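quick one, 454 residues, struct below
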Amino acid sequence: MAADLSQLVKAYDVRGVVPDQWDETLAELFGAAFVQVVDASAIVIGHDMRPSSPGLSRAFARGAAAQGVDVTEIGLCSTDQLYYASGALNLPGAMFTASHNPAQYNGIKLCRAGAAPVGQDTGLTQIRELVESWTDTGAPAPAATQGTITRRDTLDDYAAHLRGLVDLTSIRPLKVVVDAGNGMGGHTVPTVFAGLPLDLVPMYFELDGTFPNHEANPLDPANLVDLQKRVREESADLGIAFDGDADRCFVVDEHGDPVSPSAITALVAARELARNGGAGVIIHNLITSWSVPEVVKENGGTPVRTRVGHSFIKAEMAKSGAIFGGEHSAHYYFKDFWNADTGMLAALHVLAALGGQEGPLSALVASYDRYTGSGEINSTVADQTDRLAAIRSAYEGQEGVTLDNLDGLTITTADWWFNVRPSNTEPLLRLNAEARDEATMTKVRDEVLAIIRA
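---
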């Protein structure tokens, strides 16, 4: 029987436990399948600091080269550094990482030339079907001529490209604490920040895929505690945390208080609009704050609302010609970065904005953070459809209430909104709520949670 890879191949990437769910043998088959589906003659591959990453990456390279494809290995890199290489070299790419997942996990993020995403509807399903068929019938026949495997270092070029997109020439000196979480930020930050007027306080820059200090997932408040404490101890101007593959960045202000990713989205949107003559399309997903479309309109831009998920954002950016896109999960997408996401470029924008004026970060972001949000609250449910229907019936028909189904169920009034979305992979409903004040948000949040958890 052919292997069932349904638990391994997700909507946007390949991800699972090594060696229980996949190993170097499967990685080699994925390499062969990838180059066939994207019809490549050459590809670029990078990997993170996980113990299994070099072996899996090299096996994927062998599988691709056996099909006659030339492989450029860039070695240790962040995910956005791999996207840079895919864009700059105009090659399909593969990044070996499981982002913020625990050490026993690994995965592959795939893209076509120019960092165009490969997801379930854009090639990943065909790749999975090929690999499954080969686990039954044996590996594909090798090409008559083997491809080459060569090494190339792209870190300096990646750093130079990012710094060419943000004017940091006249910023005032800043003290910044960076928590790399033992992930790839420890590899990229020293090169990207080199020569800037920054007093850099590094935390957990040692590359260690066992994550000895805390999970490399700054979306969980528990993993920001060390950074917040250090920012206060150092009297720093701000703190920045990167996730394991350093494609997302989270910011805390001079008090150690987290800055909402929606506020960062609004701040960067205003800067990108100014850089583009005060016009342009800005993408935001439907759980970002009301602040984001307001700021976009105030700065001459056109906000476009999308579903949650990087494949939807990237597709809409390509379709609309958007100059920037942001998600509440702290993924930030830039037209000048091949529509791909890069937390590092967002971090540089924050440093430029803060360093370009005299006030503290808390005051700077206040104008971009106008409402009170619940954050994402997950609830395990027996029947997602039943609970969504119960929520709909509770609010439908009320005066001043609008409903839409862009991604789950969104219910909006003049004073508050909430969205409830089902997880694609777990029996969960995810709630995000926002209101004009704390009391209203709390009331709405608790009302909806009572229905979800009834």
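The CA atoms of residues 371 and 436 lie 5 Å apart.
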